[in-house]
Amino acid sequence: MTNYFTISPDFSPDHLSGWYIFNTWLQKITNEPIRLVFYDNFELQREAIENDCIDLIYANPFDAAMLVRHKGFKPLVKPDGYSDEAIIAVHTSSKYKQIIDLQPGSSIATTDDPDIFMMGLILMEPAELDKSNVELIACENYILVAKQLIQGSANAGIFFAEAYDDLSNMVKKQLRILVRSQIDIIHHSLMIGPKLLEKHRLFQEALLEMAGNEKGKAVLESLGFDRWQIVNEEEMEFMIDLMDTLSS
Amino acid sequence: MLKDMNPDDVVGDYEKSVLTLHGNIRRTVFYTEQEIPYPEGKLIVSRTDLTGVITHVNSSFVEMSGYTKDELIGAPHSILRHPAMPSAAFKDLWDTIRNQCKWQGYVKNLRKDGAYYWVKAVVIPNIRNGEVVGYTSVRRKPSRKKIEQSIDLYSTLE
Fold first, then answer.
1. Most buried among A152, A209, A216, B36, by the most CB within 10 A?
2. Taking CB atoms and an 8 Å limit, are B143 and A122 in contact across chains?
3. Rounded distance, CA A38 to CA A45, Å?
């Protein structure tokens, strides 16, 4: 029976082909039929998870609680040395020099990326800003967030730090970072669902061994990762607890 | 066991206070008027066991507290208790988390060097297989307005 694998919709478009290559490698190494499916946004992906249509997921940390505590998923691995961080940036000519300069009523460009949006709100708390007193400008991706700042349509933008760093120099030259999070412990993870749980060990060992051979290393490179690092259940529970505290 | 603060560790002019902490522990502390700004973009994270003894701290916790990791692990979380904090706030914290609910509030923490820093703290019970096995506390940067409101409120509480 086919298994369904999906990727958090906030993945970098540069790695789209990499995920297909990874899926092919994964099928070969585990001898399991796996179909890679993409969802345009988090809402559609959550609907698929809710309907038990997903067996394997590279998950946004925001969805970890639902996956682990309600859907019986278990963590496998995370990219080594990688964490989700957020940036609040403004146009270079902006009068805002630090976060506390932002005022209620500010227009904030953002995406639907749930963990980054949450971190962005936390970074704006010292300015007494929250969802109720800012004007949120929804953008489909981080390039469009940058565009809102450059065009002067938004006072500030919330970025996934990795996406910000990947913006072209021409774009970055027109932006200024007010604050970059250094949270370190929130990360995407590859997780396995109830249908494949009896193969948890097989998947985990294969993933951990990837960096040790040429073929696996090439596949990892196509994803932009050096190696996978194990995520045990307690580590995942800790991250879920942490996300819970941040949603307050 | 929580040792009294050592005046030799304190930087600048200080005052002395004797605190009665959770579990009837008495501790002599020394504190100054020096405020340390909360570091931008960081979270201060710790975990405790069911009695409030620290089992995990992140690097921001170590950096802001002024203690070493070795001094913190195994110590009661009240090692950070500042005399300006009313007992009522911590009673409310303990009552809330023992009911398996999330607590949040603004806390003035005391550093090893006698200085202080304000945080917005959120504490939750760690529930594993239906049992509470400890607590996680995450602190972030509060707004100055919330700090001022907390100072006013805490001055009215015991």
1. A216
2. no
3. 8
Residues of chain A below pLDDT 70: none
Q: How far apart are the first and last CA of chain B?
A: 24
Q: Does domain A3-82+185-246 have CATH number 3.40.190.10?
A: yes
For chain B, which residues make up each domain, given as ranges?
Answer: 35-154
Per-residue DSSP letter, A133: T
pLDDT value of position B148: 97
Query: Do the Cβ atoms of A184 and B58 come within 8 Å?
Result: yes
The CATH architecture to which A86-180 belongs is 3-Layer(aba) Sandwich (3.40)
Instruction: Give the start-to-end residue ranges of the domains of chain A.
Output: 3-82+185-246, 86-180
Q: Which residue in A122, A126, A242 is closest to B45 by CB distance?
A: A242
Over residues B69-98, the pLDDT tens digits come to 999 999 999 999 999 999 999 999 999 999
Place of tokens 């559609």: A44
Q: Which of B41, B120, B122 sits opposite A179 (nearest CB)?
A: B41
Helix axes A200-209, A16-30, angle to 10 degrees: 120
Tell me how far apart the alpha carbons of residues B34 and A114 are, in angstroms, rounded to a whole number: 37
Can you list the pairs that A19-25 forms with residues at least 24 positions away whose Cβ atoms lie under 8 Å?
A: A19/A58, A19/A223, A21/A219, A21/A222, A22/A219, A22/A222, A22/A223, A25/A215, A25/A216, A25/A219
CB contact under 8 A, B145 and A248: no
Work out how many CB contacts closer than 8 A connect A with B.
61
- Residue A14's pLDDT is what? 85
Residues 6+ apart with CB under 8 A from A121: A129, A130, A131
Gap between the Cα atoms of A175 and A150, Å rounded: 7
pLDDT at B23 over 90: no
DSSP A45-99: HHHHHHTT--SEEEE-GGGHHIIIIIT--EEEEEETT----EEEEEETT-S--SG
With beta carbons less than 8 A apart as the criterion, state whether A6 and A39 touch.
yes
